[in-house]
Amino acid sequence: MGNFPPAASRAGAEPIGEIDVLWLTAGLGCDGDTIAATAATQPSIEDIVLGTFPWIPKVNFHNPFLAYENGDEFVRYFREAAEGRLSPFILVVEGSIPNEQNKAEGYWASFGTDQKTGQPITTCEWIDRLAPRAWAVVAAGTCATYGGIHAMEGNPTDCMGLADYLGWEWKSHAGIPIVCVPGCPVQPDNFMEVLLYLLNMEAGRAPMIPLDEALRPTWLFGATVHEGCDRGGYYEQAQFAEEYGTPTCIVKLGCWGPVVQCNVGKRGWMGGIGGCPNVGGICIGCTMPGFPDKFMPFMNQPPGSLLSSSAVMTYGRAIHALRRFTQASLNKEPSWRSQRGKLGSSEIEASKRERGS
Ligand code: SF4
Ligand code: SF4
Ligand code: SF4
Question: Which of 75, 49, 74, 76 is nearest to 60 (CA)?
Answer without folding.
Answer: 49
